[in-house]
Amino acid sequence: MRDLARAIAEQAEIAARSFYRLVVVAGPPGSGKTKAFNELQSAKGWSLLNLNKDLSERLLDLTSKQRRLRTADIVRDLIEEQGKQTVSMLDNIGLLFHPALQQEPMMALQRASRNHTVIAAWQGEYSASKLIYGTPDHPEYRRLDVKDVQILTADAHGLAGA
Prior knowledge:
Rossmann fold; 8-stranded mixed beta sheet; globular
């Protein structure tokens, strides 16, 4: 396994013993998150969900109010459908940040990870104990304090740091 995939697997083992069984892999596009997820899916049989695709399919027939109210439940349901014996990797999670859904993405991920180990690809950065998504001038921008979550960072070479 490559360095990032190996580091993710190690953090998943730690997360499995935590209250929130969540690992966030933060990095810019092209930093190797998806490649590492594909490698782990092949090597370990972990489930890989394209959250934007799967969530949008479930939200399609709902009203805008229902979408706001049900998004976090649907994320949890998608993960539970993978089975208790697997780790669920979530790639392409950007829909959680859409202003129309009025979600707190980290809370939705933490809630979904209470009973299942979840690894989420975060397209952004981790700096000074904060996860950052987007840029300040973008409507989806978030700068979040993070507690009780395993964090890995990925750079353009796919290498992991903390």
